Amino acid sequence: MNQLIFSLLIVTTLCGQEQGSFLQEKQDNKIFTIKLKETHKTVTAKEMYDFLSTKQTYFRQQTPIDIQEIEFGGYVPKPQQKEQKKETSLKLHNFKNTQFTGPITVGDQEFQVIFDTGSANFWIDSAKCKNEGCKQHTQYKPSLRSKHLGYALNVQFGTGDLNGEINSDVVKLGEIEVEDQNIAEIIEENGSVFQNSGFDGIVGLAYPSMAAYNFNPLFDNIIQEKKLKSNQFSFYMSNQVNSYESQITFGGYDVTKLDGPVHYHPVIDKYYWMIKAENILVNGKDEGFCPKGCKLVADTGTSLITGPFEDLMKLLDLTNINDDCSNLNQLPKLTFKIDGVEYDLESKDYIMELKDDGTEIPLNNDVSASAFLQGTSRQCIGAFMPLDIPDPQGPAWILGDIFLTKYLSIYDRDTNMVGFGKAKH
């Protein structure tokens, strides 16, 4: 991966108990709604992507490791005593259009997590972690229904590393309950990704081939236990600041959030939610980005649109965005052509306002757009980041939240397809 760092305000939501963390609204086909409130922290986009996408290394063993033999920075996890085993929609709050999190219950505790289609492991801060970054978040304590497994897991990324151990506990998403869900407890944390963020963990929703030890990701356990009418989930990301409209839906999608038809595209590599584009056009013109087609990854854990370094640099030259955004109305339309369907992004969809404090806010809302047109904003930038994904999955482009806000996205494991439909805002 290239080492260029692009700062991005990653904003997360916290669920306030005083407002009722599980205000469930029952609909047809087992759909329940959970409302959230917001807070925000700053993390660099590159740091965040490095953590979410870096290959996670672990000790491959046929039987659980003797956890006493594994040391993490001087801390030795102690084995637990054996304890007696005793269609859902989560409302996501959008703060400044940059990151979406929702609630999940592990054991007896509620956590705020990123639901990430670009990774497959389930990470959560553990009470065993003594680092400052862990202490700033809700820390997991095993419930009476937990099981000690003791598998070690490590992630090394550009600005730090995490060490953890995989154990299991009961997990709840609304009224969906999964027994013995494996979770990676973070027991040592070096780096700023978690310390400077407002979320407590990450729930990976990619394919099981990406998961450690061949354990099932959460959604695969939901599939296995036949909890849903349809084995699909979907994301609707509101573009309205401080709205409570964003949501992830398990078991289907909300047709009231669509402003047009849904088109489905086959997954070409059951690792990421990866599909193939015929071309990427700039103002309808073929600029040579996809001579043999382009791999695209639909990734809800990445805020920006990323592309291979050389291609992304070329795209920035072609868009030629003025720092003061004075050429907003002259900026080109970008088009991702997938299976004959053209998905357009206008300039207001891919431009971000750079404020004096370094935060970046997408321009796809009326308040920001008016400010630019009236010349009251100081600076603007494109919501792009160069990123070289290695073989065999790469080279590839990532369609992050900038794209997934304009288009409601559906992830279908029954047919192994990704669907997009223009979102209603």
Automatic annotation (TrEMBL):
<keyword id="KW-0064">Aspartyl protease</keyword>
<keyword id="KW-0378">Hydrolase</keyword>
<feature type="active site">
    <location>
        <position position="116"/>
    </location>
</feature>
<comment type="similarity">
    <text>Belongs to the peptidase A1 family.</text>
</comment>
<feature type="signal peptide">
    <location>
        <begin position="1"/>
        <end position="16"/>
    </location>
</feature>
<keyword id="KW-1015">Disulfide bond</keyword>
<dbReference type="GO" id="GO:0004190">
    <property type="term" value="F:aspartic-type endopeptidase activity"/>
</dbReference>
<protein>
    <recommendedName>
        <fullName>Peptidase A1 domain-containing protein</fullName>
    </recommendedName>
</protein>
<feature type="active site">
    <location>
        <position position="299"/>
    </location>
</feature>
<feature type="domain" description="Peptidase A1">
    <location>
        <begin position="100"/>
        <end position="421"/>
    </location>
</feature>
<dbReference type="InterPro" id="IPR001461">
    <property type="entry name" value="Aspartic_peptidase_A1"/>
</dbReference>
<dbReference type="InterPro" id="IPR001969">
    <property type="entry name" value="Aspartic_peptidase_AS"/>
</dbReference>
<dbReference type="InterPro" id="IPR021109">
    <property type="entry name" value="Peptidase_aspartic_dom_sf"/>
</dbReference>
<keyword id="KW-0645">Protease</keyword>
<keyword id="KW-0732">Signal</keyword>
<feature type="disulfide bond">
    <location>
        <begin position="290"/>
        <end position="294"/>
    </location>
</feature>
<dbReference type="InterPro" id="IPR033121">
    <property type="entry name" value="PEPTIDASE_A1"/>
</dbReference>
<feature type="disulfide bond">
    <location>
        <begin position="129"/>
        <end position="134"/>
    </location>
</feature>
<dbReference type="GO" id="GO:0006508">
    <property type="term" value="P:proteolysis"/>
</dbReference>
<dbReference type="Pfam" id="PF00026">
    <property type="entry name" value="Asp"/>
</dbReference>
